[in-house]
Amino acid sequence: MDLTVLWFGIIAFLFIGYFVLDGFDFGVGMAMPFVSKDDTDRRVVINTIGPVWDLNETWLIVAGASLFAAFPEWYATLFSGFYLPLLLILVALIVRGVSFEYRHQRPEKVWKQRFDRMIIFGSALPALLWGVAFANIVRGVPLDAGHNYTGTVFDLLNPYALLGGVTTLLLFFTHGALFLVLKTDGELHSRARTLATRAGVVTVVVAAVFLAWTVLAYGTLPALVLAVAAAIALIASVLANIRRHEGLAFTLMAVTIGAAVLTLFMSLFPAVMPASNDPAHSLTIANASSSPYTLQVMTWTALIALPLILVYQAWTYWIFRKRVTRTHIEGSAEPDVEAPAEVAH
Question: Which residues, including other chains, have CB under 8 Å from residue 178's CB and lie 6 or more apart?
């Protein structure tokens, strides 16, 4: 297999892993005000992702590093042209991480509410902007002969890209609600199930429009097949949640996100950054890749590192597989002041 094709696939895999895993983190953060009735509920919600949210974010670091090493021209064009949206994503991720660590440091209600709002903001903004960014990549952006972005930030806020952003936001929101169904019990569990059902219905409609637009305007036959698979998995996830098949519903939502991301990548291939103004200026896997020797070294590194990463990730989720309950929170040594281990089981 051509190593450029292989690394295009690996980068797609890494972004799928990131969106599936950090996607439910975003969803949990956004769902917190809808399912929580008091501070104990909010602490339970935060604890569901406490042991894994930072591990999930490392997928983005690995994906970015792989993109830089395998396709430096793509990386350079993407991060220069999309500088502001990517900067906002980075700031939001920092704000969210800081909030997890600082929320429990003081007992005042106002202090906690401030960081709760930061968690919601730090979850919703990346969920929206990732969709905007990837939709613009698929749609194409104006590039000059040197593959430099020649548009403005407002050019990125086109109808197709904004619909893509709303789609990813809703997908992650529903994904997070389904994760809460898996990880909680009692009234919080029931509220999360209801929220997941309602959000899922809206997500089906919006995602169907976005995927249809993608396939009709930019897609290929493989993209069409993947889009249909994503739509079927999404509808099945909503139905599984209604029928109280919690694990199946969450798994099908993960399949939905994975198939949707693959639809975008297959709509691109063999391009990696299409030029909307002149196809001759487009970046492809051929003219954006590193040297064959670099790709060979990276391939051997990936063969060793990726299995280890996957095993460690699976082990982590197995260790922290149990539900988080109000009893666990209320039974802490200091019930009125959150313990330093709030984001751990």
Answer: 24, 27, 192, 196, 237, 241, 246, 249, 250, 253
